[in-house]
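User: Predict the full complex structure for these chains.
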Amino acid sequence: MAIIERPVPATVAGPVAPTVTPSSSLGVFRRPVTSSGWTSWVFTVDHKKIGIMYGVSAMVFFLVGGIEALLIRAQLAAADGTVLTADVYNQMFTMHATSMVFLFAMPMAAAFGNYFLPLQLGARDVAFPRINAFGFWSFLFGAIFINTSWILGGAADGGWFMYAPNSGVPFSPTNGIDMWAVGLVITGIASQTGAINLIVTALNMRTRGMSLMRMPVFTWMILVVQFLLLFAIPVITVALTLLIFQRQFGATFFSVDAGADPLLWQHLFWIFGHPEVYILVLPSFGIISEVLPVFSRKPLFGYPFVVFSGAAIGFVGWGVWAHHMFASGLGPVSVAVFSVSTMVIAVPTGVKIINWTLTMWGGKLVFSTAMLFAIGLVVQFTIGGLSGVTHSVAPSDTQQTDTYYIVAHFHYVLFGGAVLSFFAGFYYWWPKVFGKCLSERLGKWNFWLMIVGMNMTFGPMHITGLQGQPRRMYIWTEERAGEGFFNIAFWNRISSIGAFILAVGILLFLINVVYTHRRAPIAPLDPWDARTLEWMTTSPPKEHNFDSLPTVHALDEFFHRKYEDVGQGDEHDLRQVATAEEILAEQEANADHHIHLPSPSYWPIVLAFSLPIIGYGIVFERVIAIVGAVILVLAMFGWALEPSVADDSDYDPPEPEPGTGLATVGSTA
Amino acid sequence: MSDAGAGRPADEKTPGEGAPDLGNEPADTTNTVTETIDEIPMGGVPEPGATPTVDTGEERTHLTDMPEETADRDAHGGDAGTTGISNNKLAMWLFLGSECLLFGGLISTYMLYRGRHSGSLGPDQIYDLPFTSVSSFVLLMSSLTMVLAVSSVARGDIRNTKLWLCITALLGATFVGGQVYEFTTFYREGLGFTTSLFSSSFYTLTGFHGVHVTVGIIMLLALVGMVSRDRVTGDRSEVVELVGLYWHFVDIVWIVIFTLVYLIPA
Amino acid sequence: MSTSVSEHQHPSRGEDLAADEFGEHHHGATDKQYIIIALILAAITAGEVSISYIDVGPLFLPALLIMMVAKFVTVVSYFMHLKFDNRIFTFLFYLGLSLAVFVYCVALATFQFFSR
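Assistant: Here is the predicted structure of the three-chain assembly.
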């Protein structure tokens, strides 16, 4: 998708800053071509800015979900808790999970993916930059839409998996579930369009010499995740649509007395839901597959195995969904089949754990904060994976299901998996994105408090779960609490204290961010002596990423440009032949003269804005939906008719006031 | 590894302080590692005070982007960094692949619920096979006219492109009209959206399909407009092909729906 | 998986449009061939409808499904040009299709849909 060429000086020392004057788009509105200020963020199509916005938004919802969790733990800290009523408790755990899964983990992976996929591929942006922007704004508006339900009658309260018929109007009469369903359709659109975008980018926009098996593992995992999203989002869209039609239009898809089968919802939800958990965790596997080699001073052990096992997990993950339904009455044949397939999927995951461990084995380990989080993931995720294997055995799962043992499992894999990896990614890539390294001292405290907090919170849940404490119960009583070592009163209290310790750990991260912003010095270009292409840019990267797109000759191209192997035969003897600064300087010396970048645009955010309007219309007042639909159609046409890059005249200096008598220089209107 | 400023050129911006001190051993300038495990000694660090230069000597061949390599990439994608196919077309096929899961879910819901109705208003009683067969034939022919439109635009034959696009839109509108007629007839016969599980599933499935056809018609008409303003020439003629792909997909979904929903008795 | 087969180099299978010196995306069927294909599709449709009226016994369902698949594959391969385009498109589309058929058939199977 080549675009207009703007002549760029031969050596590009800093970002090229076009001047402000917008001109026409559709003859009515002007293109927003500013390069600073809030408009340069709101109308941007730059994958890096979009990535940062995804990350910031995701962090906000992490805190929202975290507060929801702390309220839950406060309620369960003692017997007969009075912090939350039963009704509010239902909303709390539903929204905690919804926020964490859909509004934190997925967008945070999108943040890392959006920022680093083009950089790791040696590209200047994604394949469809406006669609990328649209995806972000749709996500944000959908996320806000869902959360407005708190003040519009009550949030959704059926659990994040929203089982029917409990999700029906008779059991949940407020608008919470409607807003939940419509909001998730909106965020689903964001994921779907993002998936198409990143797949095309990874397949079509790799730099010269980068074959698929020379892509970094992080890129590979993101690519697999996009395929999972591409095929899984439509399934939940069907489920949500049926639910909306049931609640809004009186359809009886999940009404038992009309002859419906509630298992239909469960199948549709979990056919999405199981690939969804791999969507949540594979980007994390990708991040630590980047971090571990760098801080082990060794290449990743068994790159092809790590890549293929990632693809295998993505593929086999489509065949295991009914392990979430072992106790639903499927029947012994179905249960047996899914039990076996679930055991199978432990294999490729185990392969990865082995490869990561062997990467560290014999390496010169550097225990930076990023590395601590990465090692933490290997340990914590393994624990979660082991409890997962116990779930795959259907008879034992029948005891575990719907207890806190399951809650323990998925928090170990999600917190120990996704969350720890995001923090590893923060500490690893912060200098690249923001030009400064996060404080390692604060980072270590951040890490240890999170690890202690996490294990204190979720470890005891294995015990309380096996003792029979059910999920989604707003209260527990002394007489049911049991005795001795297994007294759930004791363990619940430990969990609640652990949750607050965890919160302090996360707070330390936020303090670290502020401290770094204020006090930390500029970081070197390559503080970790890294291996992949994103480190071959300035920190932060220029708007066009690379002055000249690198040619790739091997996996870990950047590493091989810095170090040459002068060993004889089987021996490896690595000698540094260049520094990051030298490599960057050479790239700048060979800068391309014409760099193709698409222009910012209004249409993505306008189109995205129409979606929650339609949403409010569906839930509250149908007329509003019509208004929203009109905006949608107009925005689509506006977008389709707008060229992907603004006219040259957009970049001209402003016209002088009429009557001043100055000649206009350089305008090409 | 940047540790405490060792080995960095002195004129660089505060590199040492910016890098966290991770407690590493200092740079090892003698390469003593001879094991087979990949280890990275810190050999060959440049002298302090040296400015970064680009040395194009043999030992640095990895660094230099040879001028020849910056020449045009093989237009057919032979450089392993790309598939060589159009981004837009790839995106459309990915989208169509995902739509299989959307319609699959709706079709499965229908298949599960097709028998759940009161005895008098079930599929066997209410469907008008001759009418729907004609409707299906109309949609099928619209695929033909669509493909003729794509072939015309590839030839640069603008007049026929517009003609075939219009006919395709017309046939599509006829199909949608037929659907509307069918639905209103069923409704008058007592089959409303909420009447039974069968009716809800039926209307949802065929309604989704009908909306997809309608969106297709709008795109076709927009294309006619663009073709009239001469905005669909050369490279840009691909957009006709992409709308065509969408249109054919809508047709093949109907091929499946017609068979599974209408022709198989309950 | 980096197959860089360009459309330009794909075997034409003897069905190229006449005389195009640019050689791009001009293989496939001619207009006349498209019309013939459409007539075949119409004939198959007629076949499908007629076996709803004629009693063919246990052959009914298999015959119907085979005809449906034949029409489906024909439209996809010829009208959607999949047969003549880069194999990546075929892979991606049939990946989605197979996944859909697989998961939904398995789900329906758990409802004993196929054992009636």
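Chain C touches chain A at residues 1-2, 88, 96, 99-100, 102-103, 106-107, 109-111 (CB under 8 Å).
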